Give the backbone structure.
Amino acid sequence: MSTSENISGVRALTFDVFGTVVDWRASIIRECSLLGRSKGIDRDWERFADSWRGGYAPAMNMVRTGELPWTSIDSLHRMGLERLLIEHGIEGLSESEKDHLNRAWHRLEPWPDSIEGIERIRKRFIAATLSNGNISLLVDMAKHAGITWDCVLSSELSGHYKPDREVYLTAAGLLGLEPGSIMMVAAHTDDLLAAQALGFKTAFVSRPLEFGPSGRAEEAEGTPFDISARDFLDLAVKLGV
Amino acid sequence: MSTSENISGVRALTFDVFGTVVDWRASIIRECSLLGRSKGIDRDWERFADSWRGGYAPAMNMVRTGELPWTSIDSLHRMGLERLLIEHGIEGLSESEKDHLNRAWHRLEPWPDSIEGIERIRKRFIAATLSNGNISLLVDMAKHAGITWDCVLSSELSGHYKPDREVYLTAAGLLGLEPGSIMMVAAHTDDLLAAQALGFKTAFVSRPLEFGPSGRAEEAEGTPFDISARDFLDLAVKLGV
């Protein structure tokens, strides 16, 4: 595990959000359960949440390969939801109930260390999102969760999804910084490797519960990142703040 | 003066920044004076600041008409600075000194009510910039001044400058809101009229000192806006927060 302190020249940190800042799984399970209880619908909401998230990468890849034109995560989530409702035999939801459920992704809860960690990091660095979530989703989530960002950046601004290089280069351009002055923070190796290939500094943060107690979250062992941190408080310490 | 409370349905406020949130004139005069003192250069810095700002609209219009390709405010400021240094016979500044001076626009100071007003407004609404300043300028300024935004939006994201309609429509799209759910806030009638024509709600905020004690700031008398406020605290009151 790298614990390199090679952070000289870093001015900004860009954060992956789903899984890295917020616990999408527990949040989605809770929202589904709440709606199910109010509607008298009983299903395996853990499986439902995992399937919903599981449809995310294939849907984004359809955009990345051009099979779909640019489509926001909100719309991709909604497409996935419509399919899942059929697969799970869930009927009788109104348009407004479906919309509310789809917007559960705007109301994801942060990991316990996220808010304090970001606050500490913001004292010395620019802290921005760099998420595949659309801007409005990220803004709503930050308001809901009480997270403060210096800047909300999204794949949406480049018309590409991570790990396409355009996402990272657009973010660097908007921040007015060279890639080497930016550290990408994520719990996902593919995101960090893509950023690293463009010259970004990188920080891996472990989120062992991202896919639930029996899920297989990524581990930092043997990965070539500038920082490897247990959580955002550990990241702050390793950044010297 | 309109004091209409027609704010139902407003979810977000988008703020013009130069002149509306920050006192560009006093800030630029101070930065020029500081550099001048350290370099032993004595000039009429009030006139220098007014000329620098005065070159802003013509330069943006060159972009708006296509005479220049998309050019950031940072670059437009720098073009203006180079011209002004010649006109004022100022020589001997290093590249790093010129860059520091140009970045004075990243360090503009807020009006005394701006920070508290935005904080109050953020308790109930999304508060975003919608400025012709580039994203990095706005992020640096917010860090410097201690302003917290929910989202930093800029003309840069549409490749057009205000009052081009693309700026407002891009912002609405990114916020995921209909224009009627957004209130544009500015001390400038042209900005508000352009937003209003697209369906935005509008709030005029008086900044009588924007152009200095003897300058001619815009007045709200007779203007057709949903709110007219003396400052951001008055705006907060009129928004019911």
In short: The mean pLDDT of chain A is 95.
